[in-house]
Write a structure and sequence with these properties.
This protein is 36% helix and 16% strand. By secondary structure, it is an alpha/beta fold. It has a 7-stranded mixed β-sheet with strand order 3-2-4-5-7-6-12, with helices on both faces.
Length: 584
């Protein structure tokens, strides 16, 4: 039986077929659907963890308990999980553990473009890299075999194009392995001699896995009647095939770490020209050069950004014409005569965060931002977020800013962080504020959901991954327990109350928390007010309402116009209108 599947859905199918029993993850684009799709299989326990570090520790603990487990995250989430990762690599497992990490070349939904292959090398953890949905399914199952054969966690590295594109997948039955009995082993305590011995085992393991890579069908050689060879992986392999067809020799690497020494040397020995095509950093290229191979790579292709067929073709044609026969490159795609207009990112109509950022701009606050859909508070016309770094940095970064600025900072700066991000890594930051007593004000933007990645539950919503009732964190009680005497809840639709609360807390002489609470307007089942009906007779064309940046509002022929298909009747714009043209 075959089915058309997204790469992420195919991974979930692979988890099911491989007999995986536990999946713990934190949502992050482009990895989120892996766990969401796995949750459709009742045989797999799935959960959203507070963050990626916790998720990996839960998955590892499940393997120690004797069942196959997995966790999934995006590339920056791997930074959070790095602490347990390196030690788990030393410690080993009891059953198979697979870690899915999804990179985001082109930064479609990320704050940086890091290459996760560096983590595989640094942690000495084998990494597989599928190039389509079927390989995503097959490599998931293969990863468990490698994990248990070599007593190691295994990475499966996805990227946006493989995760979110569809191809045909073959379906197989689930095979559940017997639960492995837990046996106490003092050598798993990572300290002194145990750690030193474990490091030796890891180095020996890497040698063994390198030999495995040389002989495994996970790396594939495609021969052609040509003196040109291309070494590639992932989506770059798909682009290579579209550009060259069967006209060049191709070494497609399915295992990206460790790389196969003998296979690489055998592939290169009879070739005149070798080209390495890989997105982001020159990992394969650098390794080839370390083995004495002369290859083209980042001297032709860019380090930054996502590849496309046309980009690769253009780079080859312009920078390597002498090495390629004129008829070697096949026609690939067409460019449109006119550029497609960009759709600027914008908060949804009625987004509860909009009033907060409007007010912060009005008060001329320095705003230390965080990671979430509220990061859009940085774009026009709000333009009120000064910077962001990573999950939770708004809290601890604000504390550092105020240490340097003193009262000048404390009275004019805030940190903003979403409810899910706060649970992920904001708690330690606000603890640092309360413990070390800067008069810092943090605004928790509680929209009752994890919004940016597509409405996943989190520990503050009272529901688990499947939408069932679950334990719920009380944000007010938690903040008070962490040392805050000043914890205020405000409705962000009430602009006057919101402004007064922010002014009051900025003026306070002790740390404070403001919880801006209003559910995301896109949550299923949310009941909205009727759309606002503008009174064009009263409208004077001042465009005051445009300053909120709501996509439901426009001005035509000097008069305000409301798009009834977008407006949710939040009335924020009405509170801004000085002439009563919007209903108040």
């Amino acid at each position: 039986m075959k089915e058309l599947m997204l790469g992420n859905k195919a991974i979930a199918r692979g988890l099911y077929e491989a007999g995986c029993s536990v999946v713990s993850s934190y949502p992050g684009t482009p990895s989120t659907e892996i766990t969401e799709e796995a949750a459709f299989y009742n045989e797999i326990y799935c959960e959203w963890a507070p963050n990626e570090k916790v998720a990996l520790e839960v998955a590892h603990g499940a393997t120690l308990g004797g069942v196959r487990a997995a966790c999934a995250m995006k590339h920056v989430g791997l930074n959070v999980a790095a602490d347990p990762l390196f030690t788990i690599s030393y410690q080993g497992l009891n059953a198979g553990l697979v870690i899915f990490v999804a990179d985001d070349p082109g930064m479609h939904s990320s704050q940086n473009e890091q290459d996760s292959r560096h983590y595989a090398i640094a942690a000495k953890v084998p990494m597989l890299e599928p190039s389509d949905s079927e390989e995503a399914r097959v490599f998931t199952k293969k990863a468990y075999e490698i994990s248990e054969k070599f007593n190691t966690p295994v990475f499966v590295k996805m990227c946006t194009r493989v995760a979110h594109s569809q191809s045909v997948v073959s379906l197989e039955d689930r095979v559940l392995k017997n639960k492995v009995k837990y046996v106490k082993d003092p050598t798993k305590v990572m300290m002194t001699k145990n750690s030193r011995d474990a490091h030796v085992r890891v180095e020996n393991r890497t040698v063994e896995i390198t030999e495995y890579a040389d002989n495994s069908d996970i790396n594939k050689l495609e021969k052609a009647d040509s003196r040109i060879g291309i070494i590639t992986s992932s989506t770059s392999y798909q682009y290579t095939k579209e550009i060259f067809g069967d006209r060049v020799n191709i070494l497609k690497l399915g295992m990206i770490y460790p790389l196969p020494d003998k296979l690489l040397m055998d592939f290169a020995k009879d070739l005149d020209t070798i080209i390495v095509i890989e997105e982001l950093d020159p990992i394969i290229e650098t390794y080839c050069r370390s083995k004495g191979l002369s290859v083209y790579g980042k001297d032709i292709f860019p380090v930054c950004g996502e590849f496309t067929q046309n980009l690769i073709k253009e780079c080859l044609s312009k920078k390597l014409p002498e090495a390629l026969p004129k008829d070697m490159i096949l026609p690939v795609g067409n460019k449109l005569d006119e550029a497609i207009p960009m759709r600027p990112p914008v908060m949804c109509a009625g987004c509860p965060h909009r009033g907060v950022f409007y007010t912060l701009k009005k008060l001329n606050c320095m705003v230390y931002g965080d990671i979430g859909c509220y990061t859009l508070g940085a774009v026009a016309p709000l333009n009120s977020m000064d910077l962001n770094v990573c999950m939770g940095a708004s809290c601890s970064g604000l504390h550092g800013f105020n240490l340097a600025m003193g009262e000048e900072g404390e009275k004019h700066s805030v940190g903003v962080i979403g409810d899910s991000t706060f649970i992920h890594s904001g708690m330690t930051g606000i603890t640092d504020i309360s413990y070390n007593m800067t008069n810092s004000t943090v605004i928790i933007l509680d929209n009752s959901i994890t919004g940016m990645t597509g409405h996943q539950q989190n520990p503050t919503t009272g529901k688990n991954l499947r939408g069932e009732p679950a334990g719920k964190v009380d944000l007010e009680a938690l903040c008070k327990a962490l040392g805050y005497r000043r914890v205020t809840v405000v409705d962000p639709y009430d602009l006057n109350a919101l402004e007064e609360v922010i002014k009051t807390e900025l003026d306070a002489d002790e740390p404070s928390i403001i919880i801006s609470r209003r559910p995301c307007v896109m949550i299923k089942g949310t009941v909205h007010n009727p759309p606002i009906k503008p009174n064009t007779d009263k409208c004077v064309g001042c465009k005051m309402c445009m300053k909120i940046g709501c996509p439901a509002i426009s001005v035509q022929d000097g008069k305000v116009v409301i798009d009834n298909t977008l407006c949710v009747g939040c009335n924020v714009c009405a509170k801004m209108c000085k002439v009563g043209a919007l209903g108040e």
